[in-house]
Amino acid sequence: MNIVDHKKAIAVDNLDIHVINSCNLRCQGCNHLANFGYEGLFTENELVEWINPWKNRLSFKRISLLGGEPLLNPHLKNICVAYRRLFPSEETKLRITTNGILINKCPWLKELIQEYNIHVQVSLHVLNGRTQYPKLIDQVMQGLRLIEKWAGETPRPVEYKWGPYVDSKQKLNFQVFYQGAGCDIKPFKHDNIVESKRHCTCDTLQLYKHNLYKCAPIAYLREVLKKVGVKNNADWQPYLNYIPLTPDCSYDDLKRFMGTQPKPEWTCRMCPPYSNVILSKDRELFEQPPGVASRK
Ligand code: SF4
Ligand code: SF4
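^ thats the input. predicted complex w/ iron/sulfur cluster below
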């Protein structure tokens, strides 16, 4: 059980953790860049190791386990159980964020919802994208009905301290932080970091491979550039030199990092200082070929 020293622990509203990098969809403008198809699949032991150095220094109101598509990870059930042991329900909302396509292939979600107070949020990309895929819509709707049933059967009231056990999100407009596509992506170049931050749709704290990052784009940029073969591109070098907060940091370093995290910083120069949003209804999404969830 996690013992948090609330006098010293710094409060965090939400921490995102990738349990997998791959996804079974490729949504244009994905905030976590999963549309670039970079790989990585993590086990409960790895994820416990990542969080261990932080769990007594930060106090998490919510932890979101996502990716990529978390239901592609065969270790997800064990990850959720391990995290619930570390973070009691009274203190932390533990949430899986999924695109819903695989819910009906994961009957163990019932136990996670009913016994471990795990919340499931379904992002309804397939309902809103420019191209409609009836088979995927059907799968997601079946899955949604299933988890709503499981939440409804839960002996405790469904409206728990942290809100309903399951919910869904329809309108997901993504601010695209780069210019171009594929191996031709480029950062924006300007000094108006305040405007970049004002238009940002993905400024959530990330824990990735033991370290804390300001936001998803800066956390996963290296993986993406490696995947598309442009990690030596000069335009991206300043951002590849970003130094995340490592577990050996001092309490003062942590306080400073957490104080700056919600604010505009130099990293925001890579993002557009204006709205560069792809609306849900204009977004193209594609099914990934099978076998994308590899461990590399
Ligand atoms: S479903 Fe779409 S938005 Fe969500 S992680 Fe996959 S590619 Fe990104
Ligand atoms: S660098 Fe700044 S503007 Fe860009 S995604 Fe991160 S927090 Fe948002």
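Residues 23, 25-27, 30, 32, 34-35, 67-69, 99, 123, 125 surround iron/sulfur cluster (ligand 1) (CB under 6 Å).
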